[in-house]
Amino acid sequence: DVIRWWQTATDERVCPVCSAIPIMNPDGVPMGTPYATPIGPLMMPPDPHTGCRCGERFALAPGVRQPG
Fold it and tell me: Which pTM was predicted?
């Protein structure tokens, strides 16, 4: 299983929706699960999201073995 985290540019230009996502989802969310946001659950920030400089970080969930 893969967990995803929302990451922002952490400056004054980050919109209120994006800046709240990491705070509202401190442990990340499983793939295929929406992020909790101030405007409701979202897979990604709303469109159009002009000039967004945010992104996602992905990691294997604890206890998941890598192949090999």
Answer: 0.82
